[in-house]
Design a protein that fits this description.
This protein is mainly α. The chain has 14 helices and two strands.
Length: 438
């Protein structure tokens, strides 16, 4: 008579072995399914498949048809029932070793794989959309070109900017070399760049807005002139140009718009330059001005600034572009129009320097008045002037007319290379971003 206990043990052992084999096999199958679905493979097209009948031959006859890893559609239908053809996943031992566990990969793990795929798809979609937008984003490109030009130029001439601001605010007859030497002895190299962070924060949007607004005003003027001449969009062969006065007007309004937008940063920059030890940073300077004189302190001197910006930016743009176009036309005529003329860097630098010097000289008195109005009432400075006209009268009566040109030397020395560097950088950015001007 057979030993019942031994038979039961053998049967239990076989059953346990069968379950273990089933677990390892299903692990390998589901892992391969997950990988195949992730990379977009067609699992059903793989040549090595295994059906439920072959599984039954290994001791799984009569097993109920179940969903592998509980993969079901919303209606309850199995996505991959065990009776369907399922791709072989290699040895169960290798799959189990890869997973680090004998547990079957469940639907939550596959959901994570799906989430990763969605994230990658969204990232690619956003990147493609941004790339398509950038190809036609002329506004953003002009703003970027102007901002980069402003940051590069102002940082390059920051020491001279510091000296010019100091002389305009406190006056004095010390020469520029003496001012630089004293500044270096008292504050070191960092003294040459005090307020430069706020200056760049101001000049980046200012220059960006100036160049962008200037280009837009020019386009509007060209469109207006074409309509006055009775030209239509079909008359593309007829080129309409702007004269120097029209460029002056476009540049003047561009300067006023840009300055009005970023003026509070100009006030903060002045505070950081004049009183570097008082404020810990740009935010502290903002709060300090508001606490001492109120929000109106952030707009002190805005009137003379707007008045000054019209001739300053207008003259600068007019001289630079008019001179540039005249030289390019002359060189093109000499080459019989067969060569694409591009001005050498040294010529662009010289034109920018000339434009900057002329602009600074024309607007410097109003710049002095603006600086005086900005600092009064702050850090113990007395409030001496009520308006732009009052400040003009007060300075000329107490210090003479020459006081309106205090700091012009270092201001021009800073403006000449600064403006030249700005235009060189701007022209480079225009070529890099494939921008054109009228």
């Amino acid at each position: 008579m057979p030993n019942t206990s031994t038979s039961n043990k053998n049967q239990s052992s076989r059953s346990s072995s069968t379950r273990s084999s089933r677990v390892r096999f299903n692990t390998a199958l589901v892992l391969l399914l997950a990988i195949s679905r992730t990379v977009g493979s067609n699992a059903g097209a793989l040549p090595h498949t295994r059906s439920a009948s072959s599984i039954a031959k290994n001791g799984q006859e009569g097993a109920a048809v179940t969903c592998v890893a509980n993969l079901q559609k919303p209606n309850g239908q199995c996505l991959f029932p065990s009776s369907s053809r399922i791709p072989r996943g290699g040895s169960a031992a290798a799959a189990t070793a890869t997973l680090g566990s004998s547990e079957v990969l469940n639907s939550e793990s596959l959901k994570m794989v799906g989430v990763a795929g969605i994230v990658i798809t969204c990232r690619n979609a956003v990147a493609n959309a941004a790339s398509d937008w950038w190809k036609t984003a002329e506004t953003a490109k002009f703003l970027l070109a102007g901002a980069v030009a402003g940051i590069v130029s102002r940082t390059a001439v920051s020491p001279l900017e510091v000296i010019a601001t100091a002389q305009m605010v406190r006056g004095g007859n010390k020469n520029m070399v003496g001012e630089l030497s004293e500044l270096f002895n008292s504050e070191g190299v960092k003294g040459f760049f005090k307020g430069n962070g706020a200056n760049c924060l101001k000049v980046a949007p200012t220059r960006g807005m100036q160049f962008f607004a200037f280009e837009q005003f020019k386009k509007k003027l060209v469109t207006w002139k074409r309509s006055k001449m009775g030209l239509t969009d079909e008359d593309v062969d007829i080129v309409v140009t702007l004269n120097p006065i029209e460029r002056l007007i476009a540049g003047g309004f561009a300067g006023m718009i840009a300055s009005s937008i970023v003026y509070p940063i100009e006030v903060v920059k002045t505070m950081l330059t004049m009183y570097p030890g008082k404020y810990a940073g740009i935010g502290a300077a903002f709060r300090g001005v508001i606490q001492e004189v109120g929000p109106k302190g952030l707009y002190a001197g805005l009137g003379p600034t707007l008045i000054a910006m019209f001739p300053y930016v207008g003259v600068e743009f007019m001289i630079y572009e008019t001179s540039k176009i005249a030289i390019e036309t002359f060189l093109t005529d000499r080459s019989e129009g067969n060569v694409d003329i591009s001005l050498p860097i040294i010529i662009s630098l010289g034109l920018g320097a000339l434009a900057g010097a002329a602009a600074q000289t024309s607007a410097h008195p109003l710049d002095v008045i603006r600086k005086r109005l900005q600092v009064q009432g702050i850090n113990g400075n007395p409030v001496l002037y009520k308006s732009t006209i009052d400040c003009l009268r007060g300075i000329t009566s107490k210090e003479g007319g020459g006081a309106l040109y205090k700091g012009l030397g270092p201001a021009c020395v800073a403006t000449i290379p600064g403006t030249g560097i700005a235009y060189i950088t701007y022209e480079f950015m225009k070529k890099y971003l494939e921008l054109t001007s009228v």
